Amino acid sequence: MDKILEVKDLHVDFDTYNGVVHAIRGVSFHLNAGETLAIVGESGSGKSITVRSILQLLAKNGTISKGEVLYHGDDLLQKSDKEMDKLRGNKISMIFQDPMTSLDPTMTIGKQVAEPLLIHNNVSKKDALKRAEEVLRLVGIPNPQARMNDYPHQFSGGQRQRIVIAIAIVDYPEILIADEPTTALDVTVQAQIIDLLKELQQKIGTSIIFITHDLGVVAGIADRVAVMYAGRLVEFGSVNDIFYNPQHPYTWGLLDSMPTLDTNESDRLNSIPGTPPNLLNPPKGDAFAPRNAYAMEIDEEQQPPFFKVSKHHYAATWLLHPNAPKVTPPASILNRFEKFKKLGGNVK
Amino acid sequence: MADERQVIVSVKNLKQYFNIGKPNMVKAVDDVSFDIYKGETFGLVGESGSGKSTTGRSIIRLYNPTDGHIYFNGQDISKIKSHGSKMKEFRREMQMIFQDPYASLNPRMKVKDIIAEGLDVHHLVKNDDERDKRVRELLDMVNLNPEHMTRYPYEFSGGQRQRIGIARALAVDPQFIIADEPISALDVSIQAQVVNLMQDIQKKQGLTYLFIAHDLSMVKYISDRIAVMYRGKIVELANSDEIYNNPLHPYTQSLLSAIPVPDPAIETKRTRIDFDHKRPFEDDQRLQEVLPGHFLYCNDEKAASLKKN
Question: Which of A2, A113, A165, A244 is a plausible cystine mate for A132, CB 3.0–4.6 Å?
Answer without folding.
Answer: A113
